[in-house]
Structures are given as C-alpha cells and as structure tokens.
TrEMBL record:
Organism (species): Brevibacterium aurantiacum
Keyword set, alphabetical order: DNA-binding
Top-level taxon of the source organism: Bacteria
Name of protein: HTH tetR-type domain-containing protein
A single MF term (Gene Ontology): DNA-binding transcription factor activity
Amino acid sequence: MSRVRRSALSAVLPDVLDVIPDLSGTKSYQFAFAGLCCQDHSVNDQGRPYAGASREQRESARREQLVTAGISLFGTQGYRSATVGAVCAEAGLNKRYFYESFATLEDLLCEVYGRVVADLRASVLAGGGEDAAAVLRGFMSGFLTWAQANPVQARVHLFEVLGVSAQVDELYRWQGRTIGDELSSRLSATVDAPQLTAGQQRVLGDVLIGAGVQMVVNWVISDYQPPRDELLDEMDSTLGWVLAAGLSTLR
C-alpha cells in the first residue's frame, strides 16, 4: 500500500491499519477492509437512527398507521369482517409489525374506540349554555354534527363496538358514563335547586347519554332525516312538554 493511501486511511479509520496488515491488492485485504468499514460502532440500546428517525419514533409512526387503518376498516367494512392481514395491508405494513404494537385485533379496536370517543367528546362538550335547555341542545347539536361529518368514526362508536366482548363493553360503558357525568354536572350548575346526590347524577347522566345515543342512531339509520335543526327543534319542544307534565304533577 502506498504511503499516501495509508496516511489517508489512518485519518479516517485509525484502527484499520493496526488490524489489517499491508495486504494491498489482495482479496484478503479487500474483504477485511470492507468488513471494518461496514461495522457501525455507534449502535446503542436506543437503536440506530434510520432516515432521521429513532427506533421509538418509527415504532410510534407504525402504530399510528395501524390505528388509522383500523378506523378506516372498522368504520367501513366492520370490525367483525376485518383481519390483522387486512389492517396491515391498509396500513401498508408487513404483518409482523402489527404485533409490535397490539397483541390482538380487539386491542386495536379498543385503541381505535378511545381515539373516536376523544374526538366525539370534544364535539359534544364544546358548547356552553346558561340554562338546561341550552346545555342539552348544545350537546345534541354537537353529537349530530359530529356523526354526520364523520360517518366512518360514527359507525365505530354507534355500532361496531357493541357486543364484541366483556372488555369492550366495559370500555363502552365507562366512556359513556364519563361524558354523562360531565354533562349532568353542567346541567346541575344551571338549575337553582338542591344539588343531586352522586347516585342521582349518575342516573341523570345515563338517561341523557342513552337517549342521546338512541336519537343519533335512529337519525343515522334514517339517512340524517329530518334535517338536524328540525330534529333539535322537536327535541326542545318535547323536553318542554316533559317539563310541563312534571310541573303539573306537583300542583
């Protein structure tokens, strides 16, 4: 090996010349040199960055791809028709990457449902209202608007999670009660009356969520008829009748 070449190599790979004898021009030299050059001594427990992203970032990105694919498939073809292979194909990932993030398809459904409800929650609780009627109208207006604007997510929430398993049923009840508790608290704050007990507030939340979900289910199945504002007006008049009927029993 020429003196110039050895000097250049020692500046870039100082350990090479201590390991590789002067075998310039031989196959032994070529293989040994290539082997050392291809070694990556910077790899650590965090994994080597690839395309500017760490291993954790790549895993997180793949998880998001799977969740997005799950929402799409569960909300169009249905959860019971979906398979791990179909989800991975929709996500554009090798099937082995599914089990990097989820143990079962049901685990993915739980994650998907959590994302869907978080989006729904932001919509139904976005409105305010100084009285009970305004709070209820804001809640239902947000629910109806969300369901019509997001039919894929609405199918997951209204239909696909029902009756899957005890685990999913419990998640469904918990999510509904969480929103119901907040809604009933808002209603209680608008009424000049003794505060409800915790049990009464829970019952009120269950009633409101149950009625609200059933209204939206019927509306979606009826192809969003009657128009949203017309349905909201009917709800207002119905609640007015219920209130009047309740007051009449106190006379």
